[in-house]
Amino acid sequence: MVVPIALAACLQVDAVSHNAFIQEQSLGIHYNEGGDLLDYLVDPSVFSYKNGMVDMLQGSGLGVEINGEVVVRAASTGHRWRNPLWRHADGSVAEW
User: Fold this and answer.
1) What is the residue range of 86's domain?
2) Distances (CA, A) of 27 to 64, 72, 76
3) Quick check: 60 pLDDT over 70?
4) C-alpha distances out from residue 83 to 24, 31, 76, 78, 94, Å
5) What own/partner pairs with CB < 8 Å and gap ≥ 24 does 41-48 have?
6) Which of 5, 39, 60, 92 has the largest CB neighbor count within 10 A?
7) Span 13-39, pLDDT tens digits
8) Coil, helix or strand for 94?
9) What is the overall mean pLDDT for the chain?
10) 86 strand-pairing partners
11) Among 2, 13, 1, 5, which residue's Cα sits nearest to residue 65?
């Protein structure tokens, strides 16, 4: 399960760190198959990126509200996430 709490917390720290200039995030990235961090939010628009930037979160706390029903549903199915194993054409292991 990918939850947006870490990204929200990192953005809050970035906002008060004068030397922060980039924040990595995994929205829509290939290894989030079957679920993305926006799936767990009541309002996914809080992470609306425009031109590579996102507005500061304005809600209380970290600025995100988690959809508890989605979390319970995901917890009931469980997970068995493993690092993907990618190979080059010659069969050698590729770094992911």
Assistant:
1) 5-94
2) 15, 21, 23
3) yes
4) 19, 9, 22, 16, 12
5) 41/4, 41/65, 41/66, 41/67, 42/66, 42/67, 46/8, 47/4, 47/7
6) 39
7) 999 999 999 998 877 776 666 677 888
8) strand
9) 85
10) 94
11) 5
Structure tokens given for 66: 């988690």
Question: CB within 8 A of 79, min separation 6: which ones?
Answer: 1
Percentage of the residues of the chain whose pLDDT score is greater than 70 = 91
Rounded Cα–Cα distance for residues 4 and 39 (Å):
9
Place of tokens 């979160």: 57
Token code pair at residue 35: 């679920």
Asked whether the beta carbons of 25 and 50 are under 8 A apart, the reply is no
Q: How many CB atoms lie within 10 A of CB 57?
A: 19
DSSP bridge pairs for 53: 50
**Domains in the chain, number:** 1
Give the containing element (helix H, strand E) for 8.
Answer: helix 5-15
Residue 53's contacts (CB-CB under 8 Å, 6 or more residues apart) are: none
CB 32 within 8 A of CB 2: yes
